[in-house]
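Worked Example 4.2. Read the sequence first, then its structure tokens.
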Amino acid sequence: MSDPADLSNLKDIVVPPEVPLWPPAPGWWILAVGCVAAGAILVAVVVDRHRRNAYRRQALLELDHVEVHDISAVLKRAALVAWPRAEVASLTGEEWRAFLDRSARMDAFTRGAGRDLEALTFGGGGDVPGVLAAAKSWIRRHRC
């Protein structure tokens, strides 16, 4: 008989087959679908924001090439896109400048260089670079 302690009776260890990479487990499918959905939502939000801010980009381009007396008109057109016509169209003078400051949480049109906006609109003199800077700042900063 053979001796059970004999080393010739040893056999190699049986290794199980490797786990296949494909098809992935259900959890990976759920994660992939979630990532694709999140990416699609992110793209939709970015595209929507880009479209909603098109009037801002157009107004900034117009301010670069506008006559001094038309600065207020560019601001008014931008405001009419963002707010209802009944709320914005009738504003003039001090009320218009106060609206500009209130909507952008700034004071450039009531206390700063933007005070000259009305004078420049009607052919008077004033701080043109300051008014342009205030107008560009309002276009970038205003919130509805």
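Now turn to a second chain, presented in exactly the same format:
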Amino acid sequence: MASFNRVILVGNLTRDPELRYLPSGTAVAEIGMAVNERVKKNDQWVDEVNFFDVTLWARTAEVANEYLSKGSSLLIEGRLKYDTWEKDGQKRSKIKIIGEKMQMLGGGGGGGGGGGRSAPQRQPAASSGGGGYDDYSPPPSMPPDDEIPF
């Protein structure tokens, strides 16, 4: 049976990127993302926040570290990875996202503490394998129930 593992997230950074280098010289950045989902609860639309850990590699990791800070908006395309480890004798697990493509989105998120980073005039598209999201626009927010045509 065939399988498919892709994820696309649009959200904001919850902290500044954490960049490190492997002994081979490959850059790795860990970022946290918050993604809002609009849901209806008790006749009111509310935002529910989901938090994701994303790992970026190579030049994409370096670009994220250079241009992004807490609050920055971005689009990530990648795949899910299930990690397991043992800590203090207990088995632990977590689903992470391996970011393969990244597009920085405009519109400020206004983040703070960027470690002296400043936003560039034109933000480059970083990718580990071609193709950016220059034509991407996020979907509109959900319409009220009385405007749904079914």
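Notes for the reader: The CA atoms of residues 55 and 119 lie 21 Å apart. The helical segments are 58-67.
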